[in-house]
Design a protein that fits this description.
The protein has about 375 residues and is an alpha/beta fold. It has helices spanning about 45-55, 80-85, 100-105, 120-135, 140-145, 160-170, 175-190, 200-215, 235-240, 255-265, 280-295, 305-310, 315-325, 360-365, 375-380; strands spanning about 10, 90-95, 110-115, 270-275, 295-305, 325-335, 355-360.
């Protein structure tokens, strides 16, 4: 998604029983961790969560969109690639808003980092963190997210398909009372997460929340100064999308998938970070943090941020920082290509965007990458 100058990133952890364990001992030299390193934590305190976010963050920058939702309808098409490569556990890194949750739900990482050049992305992830804290299940999460009255029979929704949840959101309007209740609950929650928030920060979180409440599942990606594109999906489309096998596999598709993400959020293991992917602080400091924790990257979702880094001449810096991260041998980089329907060998018919997965070891070990002068060159290496 033109999570564009989101020269960003993200990550997470989850219940061991919800997903197959991480492939044992599949590591290369970059993921070796000294035996005396402390054991990985399966939760962080509020103070540790806030301190880790601050340690990884820098001053951030500007991008020309609020980026409230993704504009990548193809985002689930790489799930089969992740399954085929047995990508599980570890540390997840990603950029942008809630599309990260789809990959987190599938991979079930131990910890997740969402890195974005915009501080607004960090604020939006605090909104999501509050929603996960408030919700008992998927329908209550959706109700709080969209400011709808919570159904009286909340527990009876657990086994229902995501289509039913979206249909409920379509036919259930928000009310002044339900909208204000949702906004108030989020405002109370975000103040408890340890990250200092100014009055302007709180106003931004509320502005984002009220945009979801006003538009509901009809909300689309928008940017400032650029016309909306016909292929931009609605939130309803994103929530009900299917993978290459035709299965609805998003993070709200099942209670199991939802609880993988919710567990990480409630244990303070989805860390929002304000940072440039080619910056001097974010990824280099992340490498240190991962070694301290004894963690290694399993998946890195960049959307199309590499496009912007190539244009700015900073792509080699990103590749060097990526190569320095502790990683699983089968760790994958996930990127998005906006070339149009049929524009890439891996394109799925009917989709303007194409989701691509590549082993990180292939990218950092490919000598041709140094000569890449366009994003097209980069993605067309993959067939």
């Amino acid at each position: 998604m033109p999570i564009a100058a989101l020269w960003p990133l993200l990550l997470t952890v989850t219940l061991a029983c919800t997903r197959p364990a991480e492939t044992p001992a599949r590591r290369d030299d970059t993921s070796a961790v000294a035996a005396e390193k402390p054991a990985r934590q399966d939760s962080l305190t509020t103070a540790e969560f806030a301190a880790l976010s601050a340690r990884l963050s820098d001053t951030g920058g500007y991008f020309d969109t609020d980026n409230l939702i993704s504009n990548e309808p193809s985002l689930l098409h790489v799930l089969s690639d992740l399954d085929r490569m047995h990508v599980r556990g570890g540390a997840y890194v990603g950029v942008g808003p809630d599309q990260n949750f789809n990959y987190i739900a599938r991979i079930a990482p131990r910890i997740a980092f969402v890195m974005d050049i915009r501080r607004d992305n960090l604020l939006q992830h605090l909104l999501f963190k509050a929603l996960f804290a408030e919700a008992r299940n998927r329908v209550e999460y959706l109700a709080h997210w969209l400011g709808r009255p919570v159904p009286a029979d909340v527990s009876s929704w657990d086994a229902r398909p995501v289509d039913s949840l979206v249909a409920w959101a379509v036919r259930t309007p928000s009310t002044p009372v339900s909208a204000q209740s949702a906004v108030d609950a989020v405002r109370r929650r975000v103040r408890t997460f340890g990250i200092p928030l100014s009055a302007a920060d709180l106003a931004t979180i509320e502005r984002f929340h009220r945009a979801f409440i006003a538009e509901g599942v009809a909300l689309r990606f928008t940017s400032h100064g650029r016309a909306p594109q016909p292929y931009y999906p609605t939130l309803a489309q994103l929530l009900t999308e299917r993978d290459r096998e035709g299965t609805q596999s998003g993070y709200l598709a099942t209670e199991e998938a939802f609880r993988v993400v919710q567990s990480l959020e409630r244990r303070n293991l989805v860390i929002p970070v304000v940072s440039d992917l080619a910056g001097a602080k974010g990824l280099p400091v992340l490498a240190t943090v991962l070694r301290e924790r004894g963690d290694s990257v399993s998946a890195f979702y960049t959307s199309n941020v590499e496009d912007y880094l190539i244009r700015d001449g900073r792509f080699p810096t990103f590749v060097r920082s990526l190569a320095a991260l502790p990683r699983q041998t089968n760790a994958m980089i996930i990127r998005s290509w906006f070339g149009g329907a049929g524009s890439h060998p891996r394109s799925v018919p009917g989709y303007h965007t194409t989701q691509l997965a590549e082993p990180i070891v292939d990218l950092v070990g490919d000598p041709s990458v140094a000569a890449v002068r366009s994003y097209r060159q980069l993605v067309m290496r993959l067939r």
